[in-house]
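Supplementary Note 2. Why include the ligand at all?

Several targets in our set were suspected to adopt different conformations when bound, so apo predictions alone were not considered sufficient. For every target with a known small-molecule partner we therefore ran a joint prediction. The input for MRU is given below.
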Amino acid sequence: MNIDGQAWRTIGLEPDGRSVWVIDQTQLPHQFRTLSLSTCTQAAEAISTMVVRGAPLIGVTGAYGLMLALQDDPADAALSAAFDQLNATRPTAVNLRWALERVRDRVRPLPPEQRSAAAREEAGLIAEEDVAMCAAIGDHGLEIFKRLAAARSPERKDKPFNVLTHCNAGWLATVDWGTALAPIYKAHRAGLNIHVWVDETRPRNQGASLTAYELEREGVPHTVIVDNAGGHLMQHGEVDAVIVGTDRTTRRGDVCNKIGTYLKALAAHDNGVPFYVALPASTIDWSLDDGVAEIPIEARSAEEVTHIQGRGTDGVITCVQLTPDGVEGFNPAFDVTPSRLVTGLITERGVAEASENGLKGLYAHA
Ligand code: MRU
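The joint prediction is reproduced in token form.
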């Protein structure tokens, strides 16, 4: 996607072919900079500190992390230790385990001297496939947006098609395009008069900082709102559709996404607003049924609740305390939206009902 007229992806090999560059998302939207990762530990830290984040991008970074580990030591024990180190960084997004297993299964049968090259190739394939899947999600989502926009009442048809999104499920969360934002980019490029309500997404504000940054760079009209405003806007007919991403989707179509997504789904349900979830196949965990009971929810530092980061009037990125000294905070990073609240799952293979039958209709092998 575009930053100041230049096409960017979120991750790639450095010219030496041995290290990996990523965009440092902890500094956005105020500073755009890339960081170079040359060890597995650096890749693990980039994931856990959220230099890179978003389920698909975490997976690709993990895959390259295994490559970095194998360059240093291609033995079985090192492969296994690197797998465990990377897999432990963030527990909720299943893409991480999926990508690590894919690289491990590819390299394990090979002699040690061939392993790092094979891991490099597999990580590159995962990245390319992610781009293709997200682009296809965008095409399928665009058709839904066109249909919903056309079906609006005559008095609303001349107004922008208002979409609400939560967190950042854009190109910064993937390798390119994004999941939930891909249909928005495609709709904007196709000439649909689209406007996006961007949930700020406390505590880390991925909406206010990252989604707004992306939409601004792409020229898509948008407005940042506090997380609690969505229900009010829906009650007043100001939201035509909600679209979000997911970090893990169970076989029956429960979706786990950034904390607060569930409340948006409830409000959408109460107001008859379609609630769509966009996801690539790599986000489906076929081993789980009941998302609320079974998906591990990451608990992050309470400091993300008690403090907030932003740019001061002096231009310096700084962190300030919001709460009284010594106050306790609790910070579950994700919640689960049961499938009954989901209007449809937009995948790279098309749109499915959020149910086991719906998903199996698209992924018969599963
Ligand atoms: O904690 P984050 O920023 O990694 O959470 C990201 C999300 O919740 C996204 O909505 C999710 O990964 C969907 S994918 C593009």
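The domain at 2-128 is CATH 1.20.120.420 (Four Helix Bundle (Hemerythrin (Met), subunit A)). The two ends are 32 Å apart (CA to CA). Comparable summaries for the other entries are listed in the accompanying table.
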